Amino acid sequence: MSGSAPVGRFAPTPSGRMHLGNVFAALIAWLSVRSRGGHLVLRMEDLDTQRTSEEYARILREDLMWLGLDWDLETPPQSSRSAVYDRYFEKLMDLGLLYPCYCTRSQLHSVNAPHLSDGTYVYPGTCRDLTPAQRESFGRAPAWRVRVPASQWQLTDLCQGEYTQDLEAECGDFVVRRADGIYVYQLAVTVDDGEAGVTEVVRGTDLLSSAPRQMYLQQLFGFSHPTYGHVPLLMSSDGRRLSKRDRDLDLGQLRLRCSAEHVLGVLAHAAGLMDKPEPISAKELATVFSWEKLRKDSIYLDSSALT
Ligand SMILES: [Zn+2]
Predict the structure, then answer these.
(1) Runs of H (alpha helix) within 95-152
(2) How many whole angstroms from 107 Cα to the centroid of ligand 1?
(3) Helix or strand or coil: residue 26?
(4) What percent of the chain has pLDDT over 90?
(5) Burial class of residue 117 in the structure, from the number of CB atoms within 10 Å of its CB (0-12 exposed, 13-18 middle, 19+ buried)
(6) Phi/psi zone of residue 37: left (φ > 0), alpha (ψ -120 to 50 degrees), beta?
(7) CA of 100 to the centre of ligand 1 (A)
(8) pTM (two decimals)
(9) Ligand 1 centre and the CA of 121: distance in Å?
(10) Which of 49, 117, 195, 286 would you label with 85, given CA atoms 20 to 30 Å apart?
(11) How far is the CA of 141 from the centre of ligand 1 (A)?
């Protein structure tokens, strides 16, 4: 590893107010990079233009600033980059690695196969070797899948430690462009992080199983692999994963009753970074942050601490 300063990123989806799980992942991404004098890039992941809006993007920036989580550069939103993604898609096409897939969602889910923690089913290769005549016979636009060779992917996660995945057996050929022409997360995130020179990706542990797909695409596109840190999910005290549905814990509500320092102190304490849930600023927290202190398993949050 080079001694140069790390480049991290925030990559929120502007589809609503940040909830505490988003805040926690953003906080750790910020602390990891800022505690070592690195830089942060902000990017709006708005591939799903039906659910996202510029108004939510504006509020997200404002919420991050309120928390004291600043960034150095905002790169263009994903919704504006389909011409860029086209170039990388063509690259995969030129490598002979793409093929059209006509499977319907219900066909894919009816295969009683194991699936990864992010909900991805192992693709059985149904459309891998269709003849041109067979492809023609479907009479509709296909999704496009990238061929996955037999390969083991290994990474040393900053939080979860060693992680290994047999990409062919555990995932199989995966979709890079949907039938409606929209590029999927795997391709967009690989291109965006690669082009922005991101060296460290910190996000929720539910995305750990997708990292090998991105590492495979990074290799094909000629990008370096970033370091990964997959942080635990926040759970309510009754054992549910906190989500957007917990409206009283989104920033719109929290900002009405708590200071940023109060929210950060409660999160930092629950995550093992501080002995007591005392109010603290992001800057102060950066002076005591270390990955060693951070809890590795689910973090249970007593929401009464945020009333
Ligand atoms: Zn198929």
Answers:
(1) 105-110, 132-138
(2) 9
(3) helix
(4) 81
(5) exposed
(6) left
(7) 7
(8) 0.93
(9) 12
(10) 117
(11) 12
